[in-house]
Amino acid sequence: MSRPVIGVIGNTYNVENRFSAQLVGEQNLRAIAEVTGALPLMFAGNPDITDISALLDTVDGILLTGARANVHPSHFNTEPHARHEPYDQNRDAVALPLINACVAAGIPVFGICRGFQEMNVAAGGSLHPEIRELPGRMNHRMPRLENGEIHPDMTVVFADRHDVQLIPDGVFARLLGRETIRVNSLHGQGIDELGNRIIVEGVAEDGTIEAIRFKEAEGFALGVQWHAEYDPQINPINRALFEAFGKAVRARKNGG
After folding, report:
1. Is residue 95 within 8 Å of 115, Cβ to Cβ?
2. Concatenated DSSP letters for the chain?
3. Crossing angle of the two packed helices 114-122 and 89-105, in degrees rounded to 10
4. Catalytic residue from among 72, 75, 140, 227
5. Active site residue 140
6. What are the C-alpha distances in Å from 105 to residues 101, 217, 221, 250?
7. Residue 21 φ/ψ, nearest 5 degrees
8. pLDDT in tens, 192-228
9. Per-residue pLDDT for 158 more than 90?
10. Catalytic (active site) residue 179
11. Euclidean distance between CA atoms 235 and 250, whole angstroms
12. pLDDT of 132 above 90
């Protein structure tokens, strides 16, 4: 039996500031190959290259990854600001309609970090460009050295940093078998106003929304603000999420 295929969205990247490329972090591909058992297939986050209908005829599920670029604020009626760049409007143009297409068709979709934020925007919600600037919120950005450089030790960068309280008897709580989990944190932007088709499934200790689902989705349509792709081979929380995603993808492929 052939393996199911999971499409992984690409991000715009300029090589040497001259050559336009599409980039996907290898951890995302490994999480799919090694935990879900599916074949990862990168597709371009560019509407000039990727046709959504043709894509969904090809894949059995979609992974929306994290990314350096923020979702452009024009998608939720807010003015852009140079301080919150970079943006990736090509990815926006693919991801936002793609999410709604997946939900409508029952195609499993898993959003991580930027992908989680895209899910909220696709459902009519908004984002705040700097969660840490809101009263009472912690700094959710990745750890840096005193000189401002990103910490060189990736185990420090991706270390668990705060708790997430899951909604009792919610989808995540049932899936993970607990109501409190601990996760990494590497984001500046976060959910502000909740999309009207989104259900909150988990909240950080400072009130930041960390886990969501589409309320009318027939299939798997979950999003997490943390980087679940970093260590699902050894982290039981992230493994359970990718295993559930893989189960949903196989069921879709087999007509279940």
Report:
1. yes
2. -PPPEEEEE-EEEEETTTEEEEE--HHHHHHIIIII-PEEEEE-S-TTT--HHHHHHH-SEEEE---SSBPPGGGGT----GGG--B-HHHHHHHHHHHHHHHHHT--EEEETHHHHHHHHHTT--EES-GGGSTT----SPPB-TTSPBPS-HHHHTS--EEEEEPTTSHHHHHHT-SEEEE----S-EESSPPTTEEEEEEETTS-EEEEEETT-SS-EEEESS-TTSSTTT-HHHHHHHHHHHHHHHHHHTT-
3. 70
4. 227
5. no
6. 6, 9, 11, 15
7. -140, 165
8. 999 999 999 999 998 999 999 999 888 899 999 999 9
9. no
10. no
11. 22
12. no
Catalytic annotation, pick one of 75, 84, 113, 140: 113
**Which amino acid appears at position 11 of this protein?**
N
Tokens of 65: 């990854």
Full-prediction pTM beyond 0.70? yes
**In one letter, which amino acid is 103?**
V
> Rounded to a whole number, what is the largest CA-CA distance in the chain?
54
Share of the chain above pLDDT 90, in %: 69
- Closest of 195, 245, 255, 197 to residue 220, by C-alpha: 245
Query: Residue 124: what are its φ and ψ, rounded to 5°?
Result: 95, 10
Angle 198-204-205 (CA atoms, 0-180°, nearest 5)?
140
* Residue 75 a catalytic site member: no
Asked whether the predicted pLDDT for residue 131 surpasses 70, the reply is yes
Give residue 141's pLDDT band: very low, low, confident or very high (50, 70, 90).
Answer: confident
Q: Say yes or no to pLDDT of 1 above 70.
A: no
